[in-house]
Amino acid sequence: MTFRLDLRGPVAELTIDRPAKRNAISFGMWSSLPGLMDRVRADDGVRVLVVRGGEHFSAGADIGEFRELRAGAAGVARYSEAVAAGERALAGVGKPTIAAVDGFCVGGGCQLAVACDLRIAASDARFGITPAKLGIVYGFASTKRLVDLVGPAWTKQILYGAELLDAATALRIGLVNEVHDDVRVRAKELAEVIASRSWVSVRGARTIVDLIAEGGREDDGVRALYEEAAHSADYAEGVAAFLEKRPPRFPEAAAGYQVDMTQSETTQSETAQSETTQPGAHPINPDPPYAPGTPEPPDLDVDPEQFLEDDEKERRRRAGDVDEPA
């Protein structure tokens, strides 16, 4: 399996579901993201999207595909555009997004998490962006998103060193918003809170924050948001609820989008999978061909266990605990 998209009233959930590969993200998975995000955007009942993995959020790109799909300049360009388009689709879905991160969140997995509005991490989560271990230059838009979160100096350290950061460090530098023992519960709780707020307010805030991040200024479009809010039913309900000392029930929520924590959820599931390949397309879950007798290359940005072992050896070497190799 690859991605699973579950539509649950106001809170949708996108699950990276490739556990045998530690949720490595294939070319086909990147390519499927724009279509999945179109479905989230088009569903008026969805207010928030939670993106999560399983034991690991994602250990990175499926490097096992690189020999075939990134062969030559044309292959590199095609692969890079699929990644960029998937990332743009998630970042531009137009609704609040929360990454719920357990385990390893490395390379392309970290790229997806950074493209979300908010990131909630488990206390044992590990983060890294590792193109410096592969001879790849990290993309401009992805780098900008990272700079916007952690600043230029930490972006340089993350990209130069390609080392893993623990959750405490990620929280301290602003890479994640919160650290919790039960990430899925906290992400769901936060998503439900956001979904219960005024959609006029949330949509306006997201638009303005994104505009500021892109270097924009207050313009007629922003002023139109103020005007819309001032004349909205949400505004009337919010003021009335405050004066009457009761929780607000915003009109869209009253029409069926209000989060009810006492009722069980109903779920519509859609799996982002394809059994057929269109002309010129690549299957979502390919088995890359290798010449007989050729060792299969690693299929992740990093092997997590080996990464930790190598990091520990490097730390000990720098501390003088082990001798340099002869």
Descriptive labels:
2-enoyl-CoA Hydratase, Chain A, domain 1; 10 strands; 326 residues; Lyase 2-enoyl-coa Hydratase, Chain  A, domain 2; alpha/beta; 2 domains; single chain; 12 helices; seven-stranded mixed beta sheet
User: By helix and strand content, what is the structural category?
Assistant: alpha/beta
What's the helical proportion of residues?
Answer: 40-55%
User: What pattern of helices and strands is seen along the backbone?
Assistant: EEHEHHEEHEEHEHEHHHHHEH
How is the CATH topology of the largest domain named? 2-enoyl-CoA Hydratase, Chain A, domain 1
Main beta sheet: 7 strands, mixed
Q: In the residues, how many domains can be counted? A: 2
Mean pLDDT rating: 83
Known CATH architecture of the largest domain: Alpha-Beta Complex
Could you walk me through the main structural features you see in this protein, from its secondary elements to its overall organization?
The protein is an alpha/beta fold and 326 residues long. The protein has two domains: 3-192 and 267-272, 2-enoyl-CoA Hydratase, Chain A, domain 1; 198-249, Lyase 2-enoyl-coa Hydratase, Chain  A, domain 2. Helix content is 46%, strand content 13%. The chain has helices at 27-42, 66-69, 72-91, 108-115, 140-161, 167-173, 183-196, 199-213, 220-230, 233-243, 251-257, 304-319; strands at 3-8, 11-16, 48-52, 97-101, 104-106, 118-122, 126-128, 165-166, 178-180, 268-272. The strands form two sheets. A seven-stranded mixed sheet has the order 9-6-4-3-2-1-10, sandwiched between helices. A three-stranded mixed sheet has the order 5-7-8. Helix 1 links the parallel strand 2 and strand 3 (48-52). Helix 8 (199-213) runs antiparallel to helix 9. The radius of gyration is 22 Å and the shape is globular. The termini are far apart.
